[in-house]
Write a structure and sequence with these properties.
Helix 5 runs parallel beside helix 6. The chain has seven helices and two strands; from the N terminus they run ααααααββα. A two-stranded antiparallel ribbon has the order 1-2. It is an all-alpha fold. A hairpin with a 4-residue loop joins strand 1 and strand 2.
Length: 251
């Protein structure tokens, strides 16, 4: 009995090697994330190929392998006059050397669904392309119209300034209706009605072109001055014989 108690005391001795080794292991530096202690298990690699993969490989192998002379179909073709390497059919120019390729239809839908989807995609792309082209064309037309409108304003202002200066020097006029800009009118723009705005812009453009034509003709007839040539001529005949015309594009 005393011996058994002594053995229990030896096992529970805190200075024994077993207790010290366990204490040292516990006091070792630990990782903050306990999940990192255990390395992740490797992903199991499938040792056997799936049925679908095997089916694809066998189909590709069969399609890539030409039929041999032992094939029943080849023997029947040979009896009907077929020679290996020649085209099938009466006309050798339109015959086929290789068999018609196989197109796999993996989905369970009808055979015409893929063509219908492709047609829908094509129609959508066509509509999108036309829409983008229309936007680009509209934007370019808007820029051209805006540039033409600004150039008209600049030409009119230049003609009015020259007309006023020449009238004062030659005729001693104090006022002339051609000096006034008839386009400086307060106009309420309605942003909700684009059609009315476009109509007003076209009306203003027509009015400005008419005003510019009136000014240039007045300068040519009264002062023998061409706004496009930028000079004054001695006589009207000299102006008509030297100047190409009363248009910007002619100069």
């Amino acid at each position: 009995m005393s011996k058994r108690v002594h053995d229990d005391d030896d096992e529970d001795d805190y200075m024994s090697e077993k207790i010290l080794a366990a204490a040292a292991q516990v006091s070792a530096p630990q990782l903050l994330n306990p999940r990192r202690r255990v390395p992740p298990l490797p992903v199991p690699v499938p040792t056997q190929k799936s049925h679908k993969l095997i089916e694809i490989e066998q189909r590709e192998q069969g399609l890539s392998t030409a039929i041999t002379s032992d094939n029943k179909g080849f023997q029947l073709l040979k009896k009907m006059g077929y020679k290996e390497g020649t085209k099938l059919g009466i006309s050798q120019s339109n015959g086929l050397i290789e068999p018609i390729p196989i197109q796999m239809h993996s989905s369970r839908s009808g055979l015409g669904e893929q063509n219908a989807k492709q047609e829908k995609v094509r129609v959508k792309e066509e509509i999108k392309t036309k829409f983008n082209q229309q936007i680009q064309s509209t934007y370019q037309d808007h820029l051209k119209q805006k540039y033409h409108f600004k150039r008209l304003q600049s030409d009119i202002a230049k003609c009015q300034s020259i007309c006023e200066r020449l009238d004062r020097e030659k005729f001693n006029l104090e006022e002339n209706i051609l000096w006034k800009n008839s386009n400086k009118q307060d106009r309420i723009e309605d942003n909700d009605d684009d059609d009315e705005e476009d109509e007003d812009d076209r009306t203003d453009q027509f009015r400005m072109e008419l005003q510019l034509k009136t000014l240039t003709e007045y300068l040519r007839e009264k002062h023998f001055y061409c706004i496009w040539c930028g000079q004054t001529f001695e006589t009207l005949d000299e102006l008509e014989n030297t100047c190409p015309g009363n248009q910007r594009d002619l100069h």
